Amino acid sequence: MMEQRFLKAMEAFSLPKGATVTVALSGGMDSVTLLYLLKNMPHRDFHLEAAHVNHGLRPEAAEDQAFCRRLCAEWEIPFKEFEGDARTFGMSPEEGARALRYGFLDPLADGEVHFVATAHHREDQLETFFINLYRGSGSGGLSGMKPRRGGYLKPLLEFEKEAITAYAEEKKLPYVTDATNGDTAYLRNFLRHQVLPLLNSREEGRFSQSLAAAMQCLAKEEEALSLWADRVKTDSAEELRILPEAVLKRVLDRAYGEPLDRLHFKEIYDLLQKNPPAGQVELTKGTYFRLEYGRGVFVSETEEVVVPAKIGGTVSHGSTQFIIRLEEIHSPFTHFSADCDKIVGNPVFRHKRPGDRFTPMGRGGTSRLQKRLKNDRVPRSRRDELWVLADEQDRIIWAEGYGFAQEFCADGSCDRRCTVEIVEEE
Question: Containing domain of residue 271, as a range?
Answer without folding.
Answer: 233-300
